[in-house]
Design brief:
The protein has about 260 residues and is an all-alpha fold. The protein contains twelve helices and no strands. Helix content is about 80%, strand content about 0%.
Length: about 260
């Protein structure tokens, strides 16, 4: 029951999917919530893959229209919560101020020029990748798309547990108070099961998933170092920014794979 409640907590916090029930926010439920971050990502990825497949196979829409609809869906399904973190983190980073000042900037409800510019670049890059991927989609494409949010949500959980909070308040601090590092062992089980399941159907698919996992490890290592250096710890905004940053890199990798491996 706590696993299901943890997953429902994730739906409430990180998606626009309505959950019409009151869920206890005790340690058991929050632990399962963090442990099911990757499952939430996989759920979102499956929805995205299903939408792309449906639009390509069952509608007369052009590639541009298909890419635009999927681009909108990726923003709408999360309610923009991670994009908000990307914007706030960008404003804070490009201020080139002290750690304390950067944390204050992230709390400011106003959006600065750097936040606007950074989200335009992020969304433009994502649209480019989606457009070109949609025009070259094959069956392996849908699997890789489903894996992208699975990996980005895994990074979010990893940072939440392994990086000290930058401040003693906020969503990240609330979750961290209920968690232990030992909770992350399940993430390795998830990755192993996906790789093994894919191996039975496609060796190439397994290799591509392993490649995405390797890229994710490198991106996570880089971002973790910079978060600690530039902000002194993690916040809810930085967790959202890590999701968006990881995903845009993985979308780029899938885009490149269509040119140099899968094409």
């Amino acid at each position: 029951m706590s696993w299901w409640q943890g997953f429902l907590i994730n739906l409430q916090f990180f998606t626009v999917i309505p959950v019409h029930r009151e869920i206890p926010m005790e340690q058991a439920q929050l632990k399962r919530s963090v442990q099911s971050f990757p499952l939430l990502g996989l759920f979102q990825g499956i929805l995205s893959s299903a939408l792309l497949y449906s639009l390509i196979e069952w509608t007369p829409f052009s590639t541009l229209a298909v890419a635009f609809i999927l681009w909108l869906f990726l923003m709408i399904i999360t309610g923009g919560i991670h994009l908000d973190g990307w914007i706030d983190a960008s404003d804070a980073f490009f201020s080139y101020q002290s750690i304390e000042k950067r944390l204050d900037i992230m709390k400011d409800p106003r959006t600065g020029a750097f936040g606007v510019l950074s989200v335009i670049v992020l969304l433009s890059a994502r649209f480019l990748f989606l457009y070109e991927i949609a025009g070259q989609a094959e069956m392996m494409t849908y699997l890789l798309i489903a894996i992208i949010p699975f990996l980005s949500k895994s990074v979010m959980g990893l940072f939440l547990i392994t990086i000290e909070p930058a401040k003693q308040e906020g969503l990240a601090y609330f979750f961290q108070n209920k968690m232990q590092r030992s909770s992350l062992w399940i993430y390795l089980v998830y990755v192993g099961l996906i790789v093994v399941a894919t191996l039975f159907s496609s060796t190439v698919g397994s290799m591509l998933i392993i490649l995405l996992c390797g890229v994710t490890v490198v991106v996570a290592w880089f971002m973790k170092r910079k978060i600690i250096r530039w902000f002194g710890g993690v916040t809810g905004d930085l967790l959202g920014a890590s999701v968006e940053g990881t995903e845009v890199v993985l979308w780029m990798i899938v885009w490149l794979l269509h040119y140099f491996v899968m094409g």
